[in-house]
User: What shape does this take?
Amino acid sequence: MAFALNHNKGCGKIAGQMRRWTVVVLLYFGILISYIDRGNLGIAAPQMMRDFGLSPAAMGTLLSSFFWTYGAFQIPSGYLVDRFGIRAIYASVLNSA
Assistant: This one.
């Protein structure tokens, strides 16, 4: 059996910690990129308003769409995490990207 070949029990714990920190670092960079994208929209807003002929109200609606998606998916994602567990949800989200 494959699991009987691992005689060093501490090796699995270290590998698990490395995997955990790898996931944390990847999540950090994903969130960082998201914030940079959102910040760039604020800088580009005046030019976009001129190019597309948007009013300030329309541009405000466009810029607030980040928060709409965040708010809209809080309830369904909470339900899925409660039902299937955090590991299954993270795995499915990371595999779908």
Summary: Residues 21 and 97 are 19 Å apart (CA to CA).
